[in-house]
Predict the 3D structure of the following.
Amino acid sequence: MTRPVALITGVGDGTGAALARRFAAGGYQVAMLARNRDRLENLEKEIAHAKAYVSDLADINRLAALVTRVRSEMGAPSVLVHNAVSATFQTFLDADPEDLERNFRINTTSLLYLARDLVPDMIKAGSGAIMVTGNTAALRGVANTAVFAPTKAAQRILAQSLARDLGPKGIHVAYITIDAAIDTPWTRVPLHPDKPEDFFSKPDAIAEEVFHVAHQDRSTWAFDLVIRPFGEKW
C-alpha cells in the first residue's frame, strides 16, 4: 500500500524531529520542512520514508511552489503538522516592530497559506488532519512576549476557525498547547541548568500526543488540548 503523506513544519532537533520519527513509524511518508539544510539532510538519512525540504516559512510567496513540489514528489499530504515557530522575548518598548511581522508570518500567515494549498485535496478525500503545536503564549501575554504572544493567540484562533469550517467536511483540526519547557539542549543548559527531569516535557512524548490526536475517532475529536509535565504549577 502507498504510505499517506504527513507534512511537518519546523523540523528541528527537538519536537520537530520527534514528530517526523513518530509519523514515519506510524506508516507515513514525511515531508520535513525547516531552514537548516544540514540538520534536515541528517534526519533524512536517519528516518526511513522522510524527505527534506529546505524552506523559510517567512517567505510566503514560495510556499505554494513548495507544496506543489511535495505533492509531485510524495503525493498529496493528508496530515499537516504546523510546528514551526518564530519567537521574540522583549517588552514592547525594546522590541523591533518588524519582529512582530516576521513572527506573524511564520506562526500564523504560513498556516493560512498551507491550509489553503493542502485542504482542497483533503476535502476531495473526505478526510485529513491539521495539527498545530502552540504554547502558553497563545493563552496569555506577559511583559516580554509583546511581539510574540499576539501571533500565537492569532494562530490558535485561526486554527479554531479552520476547525469549525473543516470539521463537518471530515478534516480534523486541533491545537495542542505545550505548557512547559521542552527538553532540548538549548532549553535545558542555557535556560534551566538546575531543573530536574520532571520539569521538562519530552519531545517523544509530545510527538506521541500529536500523533494520537491526529488519529482520534471522529466521534471524539478534540480541538484544544493542553499538555504539561505533572509537576507544572498552573
Q: What stands out?
A: The two ends are 45 Å apart (CA to CA). Residues 118 and 183 are 31 Å apart (CA to CA). The domain at 5-227 is CATH 3.40.50.720 (Rossmann fold). The chain has seven helices and nine strands.
